[in-house]
Amino acid sequence: MAAEPLSQKEIEDRLRELPGWAFEDDRIHRTYRLGSHVAASALVAHIAAVQDELDHHSDLTLGYNTVRLSVNTHGAGDAVTESDFTLAERVEALAPAHGAH
Strands, DSSP E only, in the chain? Predict the structure, then answer.
């Protein structure tokens, strides 16, 4: 069964549970700031493992001491779905261990 796009209200409600995340251009996104490039790189590696586990992948950008995720579901017409929020929640759970804020 294909993932169903969430309504604007559902997206807004879910974002209230994820401080730091925003909705723009039919995607949810967040930027994390870390203490160093090594810490940011380690976070990217852990996010990549989670994405493979979920078989759901975001656009993931590594900066000097930043990591930016931007995600929607291609199989749902590039709309935001529950799968995107599942990924966001998993990233939120692991980011503090890397000192992300």
Answer: 22-24, 27-33, 59-62, 66-71
For 52, the 3-state DSSP assignment is: helix
- Give yes or no for a contact between 43 and 31, defined as CB atoms under 8 angstroms apart: no
| pTM of the full structure | 0.96
Task: Give per-residue pLDDT as tens, 86-101.
Answer: 999 999 999 999 999 8
User: 13 exposed, middle or buried (CB, 10 Å; 0-12, 13-18, 19+)?
Assistant: exposed
Measured CA to CA, the distance from residue 83 to residue 86 in angstroms comes to: 5
Contact predicate 70/29, CB 8 Å: yes
Given the structure tokens 């401080």, which residue do they identify? 19
Q: 2 falls in which pLDDT band (50, 70, 90)?
A: low
